[in-house]
Amino acid sequence: MINISKLAFHIVMKKLILYIGLFSMSFVIKAQISHPIAKPQWNEASNALSSNAPIQIEKPDLQAIFIEDSINALDKHSSWRFGYAIDRNVDVIELANREEQNGMLKFSLQLNAEDAKSLNFNFNLFHLSENSLLYFTSLDAKDQIGAITAANNKIDNQFSTRPIKGSAVLIELFVPISELEEVDVEISQVIYGYRDFFGKGGKTFNSSGGCNVNINCPEADLWQDVRRSVVLITASDNQRLCTGTLVNNVREDSIPYLLTASHCMLATNSIFIFNYENSSGNCQTNADGSLANSISGAISRAENPYSDFKLFELSQTPPLSYNPYYAGWDATGVPAYESTTIHHPSGDIKKFSQDYDTVQSSFFLPQNQNTHWQVGNWELGTTEIGSSGSALFDQNKRVVGQLEGGSANCSNNLNDYFGKFSVSWNYAPATNRQLKYWLDPDTTNTLVLDAMDAVTKASARDAELIYVSAVPSFSCDSTIDPVVHFLNRGNDTITSLTIEYGVNQQFNQSINWTGSLSTDEVEEFSLPSLQLSVVDSSFQVRLVQSADQDSTNNLWSKDIRVNPDPVSVAITFKSDRYGYENSWEILDSQNLVVAKGGPYLEAINNNGMIYRDSICLFDGCFQLKLYDAFGDGFNGPYWGSGYFMIQNRIGDTLVFENNFTTAQKNINFCASKNVSLLEYSKNEIAFSSYPNPVKAGEQINIKSQLKLAPEIIIFDLQGRIVQRAKGNTFRLKNNISPGVYIIQLNDQNQKIGRTKLLVQ
Q: What are the catalytic residues?
């Protein structure tokens, strides 16, 4: 039987013992990795030393919380919240029911929280003795954490748990009587889970949008290795969720560095959950994943809000049972041709998103230029709150950034911003403000590092074709210069293989590659220039390697449309202040995209910025689609003085739009190689008008070779006369609408010249 006075002494003195122990003991940094140790057999008739009622946790004001969440719903800079932190000091040893049996003490404490979806706990004092065992079990016994052992002790004596299903949790602590004074288990916060963290697989309350793609879908087949580097993280007192990525370092020594976003406000007691994925074998059928593979706690190594990165070192190396994968990275600052992110939107099971276009150098805050990569348009999936911190991977499966924020969601796939890995690398000289010091500790000046798989590969020989760059979907040039990107997914070093390629299912050309490609390394190899002889082609590449054990990942194919008779047109776009909201596409009569542009930059003032580009079309009709992520166009109430203009090779205006005030606008137009109606004849004289562009009511001056004052007629593009004047100077009508007009000069009723006039 336990000495009650000793127990009382322990309760009073334990903090003093703890702090003395900090200076006299060497603690091992470990984590919340449960050990498969069964609970000790316990006789229900054992000696009960105390009996206390369950502790009731007050229910928070959910209505106020939901209002706050709705305000932040589209702000990825605010991590997704599933729980509300309630400050509550609970000394488990002091308040639990206590029983003794065969020299062992059992402490049992139940915590109830009305209507809670889940409960998780933050501990401000946590230390277990060598033979102590700690368990957390849901009341229905369907969810359990444990055994937690002394291996989970940390230097800062803090601890936290992942969410446990249900509104009640039973805490059970088994301690040898002789070790009692070494044990501290004191809760400081209870996280009341008010959102169904576990029901997301079934698309229940506030789960991620329906456009998100599960990581086990065919579109992500080539990313099944990289997906194992991505983790779900509890943030901000473990009541919010973000995403992070396990990254490799130059020594390749399995130090568990994890990259995420600074704005997630992660703490050293955050929970890092591996492999929270769709547990259904069917891509289209969502099934809840497991939270069992978790690690509690980490050391903050480096952080810089300038590019919004934070680097942790997890408190323990992930065990091989977690299937950890250490992602590669690229710090050169070269834009990715194609981008991928793997993430946990709204804390959901793992999802997969891709952008097929080259990222643009941009910023998240105007005062910090060229700090971020801008994804203009997700072709597959999107991101949401909870995706924050997820890595942006390039076409070679290397990390090039991490998500800070943006406006993309399922109803608007435009604009996300990822802090550049290259800026985070060594922009700041302090070691706790850069990545280089930690990921290249020996100063080898390595800027590109491939991944490291901690798990032995299933195949000895396996070459994977991951991407072919420099192959456009629509081209005005029949010559292409493909670059093949392939990866060694086997255990054996690859020293040679054959690359076969051709068009329209004909692999009639080949080239041999030789070298030395180790496991998880990526190679880029340029093929000879290829001339496409047909308008619509399918270009294929495949890898052929002796004894390759997986031929399913050796083929790549892409459809190409070659324009044999291009029509060149000029694009002029004047943005409002918020150019990053705007993008556009031009589609042909078959609804295929033949050109696209944007998003653009935020202007330094309210006047916007002017962008010019030249694209090639063909003889035919098209549809221009204008997009605005905010929904007010570039002519809305917020400094909306923009316009979009398309002109042919001689300057005729095919499209002029300056009344775009919605999220999308479609405009039909045609392009032709025929001579324009506005092209000058040999008998016409050249003249100019200024200012041009001009505003309604302003004075216009005509400069020409005429000695006499001409008659002036202004037409709209439909040929209607909108104003007449006489002389070399006249004032434009006050009520003339913005747009493109034609100024025609007449002499004695004979047309002698024409030019365009742009009215703003």
A: 263, 308, 388
